[in-house]
Amino acid sequence: MSDYLEFEDGDVIDGVHYHRHDVVIVGAGGAGMRAAIEAAPRANTAVITKLYPTRSHTGAAQGGMAAALANVEEDSWEWHTFDTVKGGDYLVDQDAAEILAKEAIDAVLDLENMGLPFNRTPEGRIDQRRFGGHTRDHGKAPVRRACYAADRTGHMILQTLFQNCVKLGVNFFNEYYALDLVMTEVDGVPQPSGVVAYELATGELHVFQGKSIVFATGGFGKIYKTTSNAHTLTGDGVGIIWRKGLPLEDMEFFQFHPTGLAGLGILLTEGARGEGAILRNASGERFMERYAPTIKDLAPRDIVSRCMVQEVAEGRGAGPHKDYVLLDCTHLGAEVLETKLPDITEFARTYLGVDPVVEPVPVMPTAHYAMGGIPTNVKAEVLRDNDTVVPGLYAAGECACVSVHGSNRLGTNSLLDINVFGKRAGNNAVDYASTVDFTPLPADPAKAVRELVEGLRDASGTERIAALRKELQDEMDRNAQVFRTDESLAKVTETIHELRERYKKVSIQDKGHRYNTDLLEAIELGFLLDLAEVVVYSAKNRKESRGGHMRDDYPKRDDETYMKHTMAYLTGDPHSADAADHISLDWKPVVITNYQPMERKY
Amino acid sequence: MAGAATLEAVDNTAKAEAPIQAFTVTLNIRRYDPEKDAEPYWQDFDVELYATDRVLDALHKIKWEQDGSLTFRRSCAHGICGSDAMRINGRNRLACKTLIKDLDISKPIYVEAIKGLPLEKDLIVDMDPFFASYREIQPFLIASSKPDKERIQSVAQRERFDDTTKCILCAACTSSCPVFWTDGQYFGPAAIVNAHRFIFDSRDEAANVRLDILNDKEGVWRCRTTFNCSEACPRGIEVTKAIAEVKAAVLRGKPDIPKK
Amino acid sequence: MTSQAAPPESPAASVPLPKKRKLPAGTLYRGREGMWSWVLHRITGTAIFFFLLVHILDTSLIRISPEAYDAVIGTYKTPIMGLGETALVAAIGLHAFNGLRIIFIDLFSWGPRAQKAMFWVVIGLWIVLLIGFVPRHLMVVFGGE
Amino acid sequence: MSTQNIAAPRSPHLSHRKRRFNIEKWGWIYMRASGVLLVVLVFGHLFYNLIFPGKVSILDWAFVAGKLADPIWIVWDLLLLWLALIHGSNGMRTLINDYAHGRFRTLLLWALGATTVVLLVLGTLVLTTFDPCIGGTDNAEFAAICAAAQ
Ligand SMILES: Cc1cc2nc3c(=O)[nH]c(=O)nc-3n(C[C@H](O)[C@H](O)[C@H](O)COP(=O)(O)OP(=O)(O)OC[C@H]3O[C@@H](n4cnc5c(N)ncnc54)[C@H](O)[C@@H]3O)c2cc1C
Ligand code: HEM
Ligand code: SF4
Ligand code: F3S
Ligand code: FES
Fold it and tell me: Which residues does the UniProt record annotate as the domain 2Fe-2S ferredoxin-type (chain B) (predicted)?
């Protein structure tokens, strides 16, 4: 056993702190805290998070959380399943979608019981509203399925989960950045044994040994410039998994939300359209009537986004540069705006100086949600390939790909996802931890991270992090956004390679140890570069248009060839010039139970 | 390549909005790095900005183009995560919600850390004491029965505590309170706001416990109605009013919640 | 800001030396009506308190002898003390009116929202009080005898 | 004072204990109740002493004695004394709690308490045992009262 590290919880060896917990959760957004609420009462649990939990981006979610409660009109979880499958352009694993829709009801009731202040119906039940892509009886008409709390549902979910974590005394390690997953070779197979984290306040390294490890680190929208995502959503968790040689699924599918404040990307919830707001082009035409005659403005996001870009491309955009469309809420009246959509009303006023009560708001699509991520099964267990699980490793939330969202997530299904699969991850992690022993840590598990951190701190190159990041984001917006072509994607690939070379020559200015955010931005950029490359490489390979992935050169969906998930693996030196030399792609079949792929019409 | 061509144009939307004119703004930032400095000091930076930029954009420009060691917290960049409360021109605000055009740029913009919490580095303070007093007021629903479905709550009852559910725990209020500055022992408005959120929730059964906790030397009675908290709250919560309601509830022995 | 803002020359070397400034204590918090009314309330309250201490002591002299009392009170009858009395009445007026404002804030649900308006009402009433009192009193102080 | 050298906020030693008599709560109520009464008492007092006679110079022993010959004014001034002094000391207590720390705070609080008690007792004695006839008076009305009392 001498190959392995011997230590006690709390030891400090060579400046590295060692901790031992049955369950180690990385990330304290909705998914991470939902898992913690299950895990903490039953096992010794630690939650590592780079932000104070209430700063997580779940708090930005506005519109609502879907569940077929049928509180205001007839509804059923089967319809919800169908909508999810259809919304995801049939790339959804239908067994997972069924679980999502069925467990949605309990997920909402759990939250209510934990104290979440949902808006209420006149009878005092949880109120529900319409949301894009959610329909009654397989597409007949929009249905009221989204449970909501004004336009701050995500805020309320995040607060409620945090409140319950406080109640349970969950052990948070705030402002600890997880930077590596420790794998120990056991019988020739690498098994997860811990997580290495960097403590922002001190610059010290911590190793958390865990029997079960849950990743819930959220999305990576910062690969784009125009995004609704937070500055901190740099995909660290997904990047860590990628660097371990584990696969990533469906990375080409990124959702662009139709209504971001033009130029800024700040989100205006789809709930606005749920309440009746209308998209208009420069001439005031309600153009969605042409594209989706049945559900018009409430068509799924990929469709609406594309139509908007189309309108602008064809010269019908509004504004001096004809480069955006308008979201018209004026007919809703001040009352509805102030009571049901107060936050977005304020965003428009603050950031654009536009008052939605009297004028339409300039909007354009904004990078919003990563459908792809760490592949898991319905138990939230991470997959090593198409069907082998990595024992003890779990993922949930936006960083994971179950896949319930397929190629396009329906609005309100993600808050649902984090609750349903966050809970499952927590439960299964505890169950697993109660049956096994700790996997020993290798000698010096923090070695790689120490080298990374010290390498960057001492680097004396001439490149600046911010400049590289900006080039990456601009390029992704230009060539890998709503519309993609072989040519545009090839350009991005080239840019990324070049940026990667320049990244070797960066230097940071803050050489200190305490609160060195300069250093962390450098590390985060590393993850962004890795993930952007996987997104682009996967996108280049999928020569069809489906859901969030729209190829101008292959505008049709091609079920013959592409009705399957992409699985990407890191198999070589990421610095090699040709992405094909270090990324290899594979396919994974889609689970189909009840619904055969059909053309998507709304 | 219709799509890509369009997207070029999208980039420029913000500029298209108003006649764009960049001007140079001076930011005077209170710096402190415990590894180097014995005392905090002020440092100026000149930054090119647009009227639509926010103070957060200015800080980013400095960090990204001039001095990477400038340290501050931020995440969402639109006022919902509560990371970037700081003192801007002498008042607590969120950097991401403060537009340059709303400030007088003929003079330097003063930016410094919030007051009353231990200063860690530049604009970062230690938030642990803040969360500690939050935890003390038992900020979670306490209800004995577990119904099969949701608990029933009328629209009026839900409305009763709506204002205080908006809190993002940014600490702008607590760190603007002159009473909190004196010795930091006062629970502070944020903790009271979050207690209010549960005390006035018709589903909660432990209002008395929280009222007891706040009926204390460091509780509601220390509030001297200076209203700095209400002025500072980026969520527009009527903090002082909430505190007054809690005081009234302590005096009556129970909160005033609509019966139906 | 799409233009590729050229990063300043050689980045590693371009860190500007801090232009250090004195003023380490941080700026004065710029509160509004609520905060300044509280500052005034504190100052006036404290001032009145110390006056009251002295006032009780000097008034107690009436128990000792008329002469003692008159002697001490006599020393008060100077223009300076007259001004002091004016300040005292001003302080009491401000403290009293603002005290009522605080009570209204605490007592009525509309109070907190009306606090700024009430502050200006307090100032208004206070000015009226001073207009009623000061000229008369100063006339007595300076013009008397 | 920079933020680095103040005690960590909400340090545990000061956390709440349960007291039967809650001085903060009752103090708060008292400040408001006494405040309302004080408005009447203080302005009455000021008006009678400063405005009503029309001349500050008239304020002398005889004037006070004359005033205190009326029992209503004795009650008035007694109320004023107690309400204002307790109101003021409770206010000062708040200030001391805000700005003074540790031993110094304890010391100040004791000093404040002692001063208040002494002055309350003194003031009460003066007012209740005051004999307007200890001094000679040229006020005829007054002399009559004194004579009657003898
Ligand atoms: C503006 C906006 C509006 C939305 N509206 C809706 C909606 O109405 N309905 C809906 O269903 N969905 C909505 N979504 C999507 C949904 O909010 C997110 O997908 C979901 O909240 C993600 O939750 P999460 O727990 O996976 O991640 P997050 O909440 O992003 O949390 C990530 C956590 O991981 C931690 N973390 C990250 N990296 C590290 C690291 N290296 N080390 C340690 N910790 C780390 C962070 O600290 C954070 O706590 C919206 C999204 C956005 C951006
Ligand atoms: C004339 C009528 C008066 C009214 C209506 C009044 C009202 C009040 C009120 C309501 C408060 C509480 C403030 C708070 O809790 O924030 C207060 C505080 C105070 N009062 Fe008065 N008061 C009056 C007279 C006096 C007098 C005569 C004195 C002096 C002896 C005095 C000294 C103080 C002091 C020292 C405070 C504490 C200030 C603080 O904590 O900031 N007041 N007053
Ligand atoms: S009450 Fe307002 S200022 Fe205070 S913490 Fe909450 S959101 Fe911030
Ligand atoms: S600033 Fe402080 S004194 Fe009261 S009104 Fe707000 S808590
Ligand atoms: S960055 Fe989130 S509140 Fe400002």
Answer: 23-117
